[in-house]
Amino acid sequence: MTGMDEHTDHLPEIYRSFRRRFPDVVHRHDAVAEAVDAAGPLDEQTLRLVKLGIALGAQSDGAVRSNVRKALEAGVSREAIEQVVLLGLTTRGFPATIAAWKWTSEVFDNEQPDA
């Protein structure tokens, strides 16, 4: 998670510019994120699904997209990701679930292998 690499093209320019402007702050924030992820017994796939649920609850477009990408990278199935979004229906409500469904679908569409 620390540092940027060639896999950041999908990130908003404002986020990339923040990282460039405040590299020490970002480095420290990334270290805290890594420590939090490692602080308990949850495996990587479960962490990614929980974080997706939190992002959906917060109705954070960027966080939903980021956590869908990270879940896919961790080997989480599309069906499991879709179930997490669907679970939002009875907790967060229909509009939030539809918004998260849109953001998730857009990530899925962008993750299609090149033909």
Automatic annotation (TrEMBL):
Q: Which Pfam families match?
A: CMD
Record-annotated Carboxymuconolactone decarboxylase-like domain positions: 23-105
Report the source organism: Georgenia wutianyii
Q: Report what the protein is called.
A: Carboxymuconolactone decarboxylase family protein
Please name the Gene3D superfamilies in this protein's record: AhpD-like (1.20.1290.10)
Instruction: Recall the taxonomic lineage recorded for the source organism.
Output: Bacteria, Bacillati, Actinomycetota, Actinomycetes, Micrococcales
